Structures are given as structure tokens and as C-alpha cells.
């Protein structure tokens, strides 16, 4: 394992539904059970349990727990570009993901590590943290698709960036990027934050001068 950890300058990325398309592996598996294709109503497990009862829920869980769910996921091309851009510009990139809570925990972790190694190489494959408490991990930003993500910002050092998906459009978050335009969105967002920091610093300086007078 790596002998260092993320800092408050690190940029953190969730994996599933953020840089990797869950629907690229999960949807085809689930759709095998149905005569009519299931749309991207993710979190699918939640949706199907609410609307279809236990049986569709079981089918979904069964689809999740079959091996190779993670290793066959496709990366969003713009997220691939974004992460390579950040690495090339010397940002400290980390991946933070929840482990599957079942008997496939170990193999799902290995699949996720393999995916990162495949796309970003051996060094970045050591930059994965498996945690259910993402707010405990230091960082400048955490990019995540979970609808609950922005609410955790108050407990964390990082600022929440919501990766837009159909299931989080209604969620209020001042920092959002899209899978189709991740690189441009992120550059604009970081630029905007940098400008705000400069004007905050300027304002603080002016205030302290006023106070000292
Ligand atoms: Mg996710």
C-alpha cells in the first residue's frame, strides 16, 4: 500500500455512477429478467423495491452480486479526460468508494482496483480508499453522484461536487458537473472557486486594514 494519504488539497472521485457508468453493466443484467427494458431509474434497488416489491429487488440484488459487475463497467470518456488532465497538472487525485457489504467484498475491491490500474496505471491504483464514511477523508473536492452527497459537505473538509445523474437532478448543490462535459465543467468550477477565494482574501485584507485603523 501507499505510505501517504489524501490531504486537504487532494481531489477525490467516487467510482460507480461518477466516473464509471453503472448502467453499462447493471442495466443489461437486469433487463435480461424483463420483457420491457428497465430505464435508468437508479438507485435501481431502491426504485424497484418501492415500485415492484421484493422479487424485482431480489433480481436486482442478484445482478449486483454476480462477479465482474465492476470490472466490466465503462468509464465515461469525459471523466477519463478530466482525471488525466488533473494528473498531468500535478493534482493529487484519489478514488473513494464504498465497499460492497456482502460476501463479494474482497472481489469487488479487486475489480475496482483493476479498473483504476487499467485506465490510470499502477500508481493511481494505490490511490483507492474503500470507505462508507467519505466525510472523514480529507480533500479539496469530492466528486460523487449520491443524492446524499451535498448534505455531507458540512461534516467534511472537502467541497461537494455532484456528478449529475437522472436520480439527483432535484438535489440542491452549487457545484455540479456532468458526465458529458466533465472536463470543461470542472475547469470552470475550479476557476470560479479560485476567483471567489481571491476576492474573499481581498475582502478579508480590506476588513483587517479597516479594523486596525
Ligand atoms: Mg456512486
Supply database-style keywords.
single chain; 213 residues; alpha/beta; Rossmann fold; 2 domains; six-stranded parallel beta sheet; two-stranded antiparallel sheet; 7 helices; 8 strands; binds magnesium ion; 5'(3')-deoxyribonucleotidase; HAD-like_sf; HAD_sf; 5'-nucleotidase activity
Specify the overall morphology.
elongated
Uncertain stretches of 5 or more adjacent residues: none
Mean pLDDT: 85
CATH superfamily of the largest domain: HAD superfamily/HAD-like
CATH topology of the largest domain: Rossmann fold
GO molecular function, one term: 5'-nucleotidase activity
Pfam families: NT5C
Organism: Hexamita inflata
Protein name: Putative
Describe the protein's architecture and organization.
The protein is α/β, with parallel strands linked by helices. 42% of the residues lie in helices and 12% in strands. The protein is built from 7 helices and 8 strands, in the order ββαααβαβααββββα. The strands form 2 sheets. A 6-stranded parallel β-sheet has the order 5-4-1-6-7-8. A two-stranded antiparallel ribbon has the order 2-3. Helix 2 runs antiparallel to helix 3 and helix 4 packs across helix 7. The longest helix has 31 residues. The model has no long low-confidence stretch (mean pLDDT 85). It binds magnesium ion. Magnesium ion binds next to loops.
Give a topology summary.
Blueprint: E1 11-13, E2 20-21, H1 26-31, H2 44-52, H3 54-65, E3 74-75, H4 77-88, E4 93-97, H5 105-120, H6 122-125, E5 128-130, E6 141-144, E7 159-163, E8 176-177, H7 182-212
